[in-house]
Each structure stands twice: as C-alpha cells, then as structure tokens.
Design brief:
82 residues, alpha+beta, three-stranded antiparallel sheet, 5 strands
Amino acid sequence: MSIHELADAKQYILVMKGAPERILDRCSTILLNGTEREMTQDWRDAFNQAYLELGGLGERVLGFCDFLLPVDKFALQSLNHI
C-alpha cells in the first residue's frame, strides 16, 4: 500500500496491490471499460472464477485497487512552514 499526491487534483490517492481475494474483500466498486460500477455478487463471482482459472494455469495473479482520500479529512499540507 502507498499514498501519492495527485498534483492536478490537489488530493491524495491510496493504491494497493496484493492477493486478489484480499483486494476484492476491500472493494465496493469495479472499473469496467473506464466506468466505475457497483461491485455486485455476480462481479465478485466472475472475478473469483477468473483468477482461480489463471492461477490453475500457473499464472501469477495480483489484485490492484485505488481510493481517492476525502479532501475534507486528508487535505494537502502546505510546505510554506518548512
């Protein structure tokens, strides 16, 4: 997990990678063809089936996710005081 500053958006983004089942447990949405949609049980089942099949073929499977941290709780800190 790491947190990065988005200069153009003036906020932070949290990104994480790891075991697909661990990442999936933390997700409430899924990005499909550039559109964010609610994570349904059907999508969870399809995701699980896909990574199990790939893993069964000997492929290494990683999960990735991101989260824009709310600006009202995680405002960018000014560096003027340094």
